[in-house]
Amino acid sequence: MTMKIIAFGEVMMRMMPPNYKKLSQVDTLEFLYTGTGVNVLSGLYQMGHEVYLTTRLPDNIVGQAASAHIRKLGIHDDYVCYGTNHIGIYFLEQGIGNRASQITYLNRLDSSFGKSQISDYDFSCLDGMDALHICGISLALRENLREVAFAFAKEAKKRHIKVIFDCNFRPSLWTGEHDEIKHIYEEMLNLADIVFAGYKDATLLLHKQVDQSLPYDKQLRNILMQMCQDYHIEFIFGTIRKDEELTGYMVTSTKMVMSPKMRLTVFDRVGGGDGFAAGAIDGYLTHMEPQELIHYATASGVLAHTTYGDSPVVSKEEIIDFMKNGKRDIKR
Amino acid sequence: MTMKIIAFGEVMMRMMPPNYKKLSQVDTLEFLYTGTGVNVLSGLYQMGHEVYLTTRLPDNIVGQAASAHIRKLGIHDDYVCYGTNHIGIYFLEQGIGNRASQITYLNRLDSSFGKSQISDYDFSCLDGMDALHICGISLALRENLREVAFAFAKEAKKRHIKVIFDCNFRPSLWTGEHDEIKHIYEEMLNLADIVFAGYKDATLLLHKQVDQSLPYDKQLRNILMQMCQDYHIEFIFGTIRKDEELTGYMVTSTKMVMSPKMRLTVFDRVGGGDGFAAGAIDGYLTHMEPQELIHYATASGVLAHTTYGDSPVVSKEEIIDFMKNGKRDIKR
Amino acid sequence: MTMKIIAFGEVMMRMMPPNYKKLSQVDTLEFLYTGTGVNVLSGLYQMGHEVYLTTRLPDNIVGQAASAHIRKLGIHDDYVCYGTNHIGIYFLEQGIGNRASQITYLNRLDSSFGKSQISDYDFSCLDGMDALHICGISLALRENLREVAFAFAKEAKKRHIKVIFDCNFRPSLWTGEHDEIKHIYEEMLNLADIVFAGYKDATLLLHKQVDQSLPYDKQLRNILMQMCQDYHIEFIFGTIRKDEELTGYMVTSTKMVMSPKMRLTVFDRVGGGDGFAAGAIDGYLTHMEPQELIHYATASGVLAHTTYGDSPVVSKEEIIDFMKNGKRDIKR
Amino acid sequence: MTMKIIAFGEVMMRMMPPNYKKLSQVDTLEFLYTGTGVNVLSGLYQMGHEVYLTTRLPDNIVGQAASAHIRKLGIHDDYVCYGTNHIGIYFLEQGIGNRASQITYLNRLDSSFGKSQISDYDFSCLDGMDALHICGISLALRENLREVAFAFAKEAKKRHIKVIFDCNFRPSLWTGEHDEIKHIYEEMLNLADIVFAGYKDATLLLHKQVDQSLPYDKQLRNILMQMCQDYHIEFIFGTIRKDEELTGYMVTSTKMVMSPKMRLTVFDRVGGGDGFAAGAIDGYLTHMEPQELIHYATASGVLAHTTYGDSPVVSKEEIIDFMKNGKRDIKR
Amino acid sequence: MTMKIIAFGEVMMRMMPPNYKKLSQVDTLEFLYTGTGVNVLSGLYQMGHEVYLTTRLPDNIVGQAASAHIRKLGIHDDYVCYGTNHIGIYFLEQGIGNRASQITYLNRLDSSFGKSQISDYDFSCLDGMDALHICGISLALRENLREVAFAFAKEAKKRHIKVIFDCNFRPSLWTGEHDEIKHIYEEMLNLADIVFAGYKDATLLLHKQVDQSLPYDKQLRNILMQMCQDYHIEFIFGTIRKDEELTGYMVTSTKMVMSPKMRLTVFDRVGGGDGFAAGAIDGYLTHMEPQELIHYATASGVLAHTTYGDSPVVSKEEIIDFMKNGKRDIKR
Amino acid sequence: MTMKIIAFGEVMMRMMPPNYKKLSQVDTLEFLYTGTGVNVLSGLYQMGHEVYLTTRLPDNIVGQAASAHIRKLGIHDDYVCYGTNHIGIYFLEQGIGNRASQITYLNRLDSSFGKSQISDYDFSCLDGMDALHICGISLALRENLREVAFAFAKEAKKRHIKVIFDCNFRPSLWTGEHDEIKHIYEEMLNLADIVFAGYKDATLLLHKQVDQSLPYDKQLRNILMQMCQDYHIEFIFGTIRKDEELTGYMVTSTKMVMSPKMRLTVFDRVGGGDGFAAGAIDGYLTHMEPQELIHYATASGVLAHTTYGDSPVVSKEEIIDFMKNGKRDIKR
């Protein structure tokens, strides 16, 4: 069952000193192109879907190389537009053992994407799609982007396309009043069918009340069920990361289903969440049973921590093999 | 005590994306030449023996580079012949953490080795040798190879050279009737002095009966002792890999000796078994005491998991140091 | 003016020791996926066209990585099919100065492509295309492939799609009788609108007679004009490579147009001819004037010698800038 | 004779695909930190001087790595300040043979340097210096930078420090009226003792009139002598690059001295001019004879084309050896 | 509070096969310049101090590259002198898992440093310094070096500069009588204010008596307190490394303070002790509270095991973050 | 016609910054093992001979890796002995264009080879050999080595083995009186059958008189013929390198034969002379005709400049193809 999914989102350049070195210790960088949308689509391609990205890239070799990179990941670049000359860049100093990974951003606001506006996009790209993915970062960066994001969501609604929204709330990116931010998020949640969110999104961002004397799981279930009810959300997905274990959950207005706790082994941390998201979306679009779905999505998230880069590149077969057989030595 | 050992076996090219990446993520490959015979001989060279490979390689730069590579490992290439233009290749996507390593073979049957026949080899290369090593893969690939393998075993017998046979039974490589395969193996086992074999070889391949209500160790001992008796084998060696621990065993027609359980740490999985085999053969040829022998062989196998490549490259001193002192930090 | 071009052709893996080293001097290889069709399409993508490859690739990670690679080059993989597990591989030892580059092939006949047949392909992929590209190598490798090639050419004819045929006659690949080979080529030439051919194709392969007392240029013109007439070919394109200079020509049944002689500088030799072909096809499809067309195609060929890999990756702008301004130092 | 030279100027990051590849062909980049000031100081360090850079760098690991890099080049970072989080970046696709090198800039205006202002700098850093170097790029980028540049020049004048100004006029960087730009340059030229300038600076930028019927050399001499007179410049230095040869010149208000024509071989084009500048400044500060000085500076420029990176790294000994002995094979 | 620290010590070249390979498996080496002094100063630079090395380096490109390398680490090279042409080199075969790292030294005695003598150094470099660091290796290598080390210590004493002495007793480096060695060490200890020493230094080297029936901690406290009293040492610092945990201690003539046990994760083992030393010296010079100081120093040591190279390159902020928050996933 | 050749000579480590960078610009080095004997034997292996090296290497991993490296080149290591721990190292900064290559030696005198003496070698290794190669460097380094060299030459003489001596006179390596040096060389020349020598060896070293009014070729012929007569040398070989062209010569006591002038293209300069030597020795041992021999040897020398490393790795087929067809583009 092949579905068509389109994402509206930023493409950034990730630059990493090789071999766990610090930036001042190297004179080469490994780079790739990334972004929440890119990552989720990459995962969905591995799962057999037809995937499209719509974004604005620099009108130069950096933008062309970005397109080539995402095509290689299996993403169609038909709806990418080009303009101006800047792209967001982040440096990743990969940690190991006791040393944490560190991410340092260069100017992200003035990128071709950051400065793009409604007139840059052709909404007919939504025709024939089954789902649209939007990331909360687009709401945060600049007002013009926020307008584009809402325009996409509304155009999708018109066409009865499922709207998938990943909250991805990062306070550091926001400059406005909290009430205004909450309002913006609520507007988007009202448009969304599927949402990726967690405890902090519900409490810190949306101010959902919760009885803190309850166990954590119960609290989480209550506030996310509340969110589903308040904004008419079909499903909320998310993960709990604790003690080097990952547990996925899936919430509707009436219940919560949780995956088994799965042991995490981290090779490349960034993009792990997007691996989970790809699995959840695939499971949703192909109508998996709830328990299987959330197990599968969590397995996808766990394996996304074991591959180089932010974009999931494990195949559906590998995920299913891992769900069934756990960690294996070698396959011939 | 330097012995002379010759192996008849395939040389393949192993190609690996660097840094745990997937093939589609790279544009360079690390490569080396490998094969059960190559690996066992490489280990035996490190232990002080004089080692020779007899095989057929492509008659082009790929074959010449293979010879150069095995010479670097310490293996004499005097008895390598050349012809046709193909070599077996496998791609290794190295796994990490929860992600398994994956091996993908290209055409192996039509290699220079796969198509070689008795007339390509000069059996006088056996003169003066102390032992001959043959791998079960040669029995599986093609009938012409099987003929060569038997010819070598019989010529060795004539010269009172010890015949070492590694079962290495891989059902996927065999296309014939099971009875026929069993018969072929039994013929080879009757020629062999030293055999590498395990539970599955005895039960699935050779149909040895065992009382499954016994503990695993007992079962193993019984069927392997049975094998020794049935085929007049001097020693059977093998390992049990469980819960990231390795235990070696050594069986005669009357008893079984086991190594201590040794904790495994895996850096490069492929060829670990060949490291054990090299240790066992060295121990056998240099007349170590059984308990020391099997401990030493297992230590050799454990350390073979910690070096790059399929071919063991740790020195005898390192193995003995590890047997005595366990894992150490740094040696100056 | 964007056209749609599809090529039927082989994808091979090219493996190259880095930095002009010999195979026996390295333990890493730079690799990429290549083939006449791949290369021509890659060039046409850079010139603004929509390009498709139809072929059969191995049904494993090697085939998937091949698809990812050609997508990165801008080629659609919608019409690629998968089956069996082998791919043609060649090793390129890149020469420098007085030392020639050397190419060594491994088994090419038994590749997924080599063994593919008509039932593996869906000819509806031709619907809506403007041109089909076929390479003479497909005629040479195996009979089953030859059948596929002719089927494609005939299906294209039916749909009034231009058939582009690159003779690429390599005697070493052919095993049959010369008359039979000539006959096969003639059959294909009768189907073709645009042909890439040179002096040797006309004389050695097709036995065209020529007055050898004439200057080389005249001889060439006469036999190629003859070819155009004999097989109803619209245009024949080709190049003369002499004294480190390249001259392109374009021949119809009535005349020959030649480019200026352009100085060659060689960084990566393989695929230079495909760069010329891409330029010629672009010029033809976009109706350039003859003199401009052949100058442009030759400039494209010249620049294709200056980039890594077999597949042209210089942009149309770079080619035009080079035609106008010649060799330049640096562009900001 | 060790002098103390300080430069005020931008530090950029240069990112280059290795091995002459295009950006879309690679996943690693070689990078370094560069800038006219950095390059000139690097050259002067090799010639035995004590050199300082004053600039503003990002207040993060990118800025720290920049400081570490310039320290490695021998430049003191005592007067570097830190603030905001962006740095100018350019991508260099290195050309070869017929293919030109291409430089692509990302956002340069909003860098930490681009947004720095007078209050970020401590002019006491000029105390005890012998010379100050300023590059015309600082005049072009933004008004705030222009203010800093003039403040540095005036503070240097007060302290009787030689002011060295490199015109480096790039029309594409300027957005204002031409008259205003001319005026700004003239103001700086009036402050400068030593100037790097050429034909276009004098005619296009400063509108110097010249009798175009004269030979090029004469024209050049006349307009540069005129510049020296008009702005009270001690020396103007520059080079003529033609037919893969480099000729240096040195002009006062009364005469012009030219170097021999020196054959250029280009390995890394960018920064060649800065190698010449370093040589000229060293010659000037150490009171070389005019003819020797301009030969030495040109040799320095020529050798700067043969090393990796924009910053000259050949030693004074190598330059002098090259002046005397020309191109040599090998030195032991 | 920025202090000025100078170290007198050897600079060696460290050469390492990449990716955990053995020397015979590679044809490239990663190299860097290292030494106890270099490493301690590198750590102190990260903590905000002004640091200087005084040593003798080869008078050729190897020495110049060494200076460039240490400047990059933040160390001033003003007091480095140059002479003769040799440098100490060690090869590090990095172990992994069960395989130990192995260090192999080439000729170290005949290096430019090893052969340097008092007349090579200018003791005025001590003027204005707050502390001098000396390593026990300098006492061991050669008599001439020992003389330089004592001259530095005495000159520092004269100027009331704190003398920091790292015992670093390696029996294999010493050739003389034990009594003489003991005497030399005692002479240096009498000059030292701060000492890095452990159980073996006190017992094997200095023959301190201890009641072995006491627990290890008590024994250690008693003999180190005894050392403080005997040689009038202000503080002795050191670590206990056991069961993959590190515990730091700090001893005066009257008490011992211990850090919490901190779990070790080893990425690059060499230089871990120097990371501890840098932390301890920083804590001492900036008057941290004892408990905080030893915790901080141990955290610094623990993190020094997680970065490439012998020289600590983690920032003070990272150390403090690790002390407070422990191991973290990712920091943005 | 396979001959057996043994060389007595030094093995050094060559370390080179990759990609034409300077040492201070890199943190990795490409390394290999080299030496005149190694290089000549490597060339002779490619020409089909059985080759052996006798030398002393460090008794550690550096020595073992050296053995592995030379085995890879095709050289037997049966007669290598091991002792002490040092090896000669040189750094090669490879030049390009106008910039010369620079070689910097570290301590070479105290290497395992440099300190080896007669008792370290077993002269029975000469039994059955056809030729012995000795290099003048062994005469220069130390007296003990000189003794070994003479012992080898005399033992070879006894066995009627051809003695090949490469003068390789480098004044900088010698410390003694000139007369003594001349005497030592003359003693060796009296033992030698085949000698590699040139103009400077004859005039500066051996003080042969020559009529300087003659053309250079004539002078050269006269003094080398004189040498042949004076020391009873069968053949003297050498090359003239001028204007990027190489000409080989071969002299007996009665005549001189010269090769055609061959254009040089330099990729890796070091070891070019050893490529010529290998060709000359092969030609001599296989009884080529003089004119063919010297052409072949010169072609071998020319091609040795086009491969990475000091040791020739082009095959005999490539040399012959180059002799016949000159520079070629590509070979399939």
Automatic annotation (TrEMBL), chains A, B, C, D, E, F:
The keyword Kinase applies. Belongs to the carbohydrate kinase PfkB family. Residues 4-311 form the Carbohydrate kinase PfkB domain. Pfam families: PfkB. This is Carbohydrate kinase PfkB domain-containing protein. GO terms for molecular function: kinase activity. Keywords: Kinase, Transferase. Gene3D superfamilies: 3.40.1190.20.
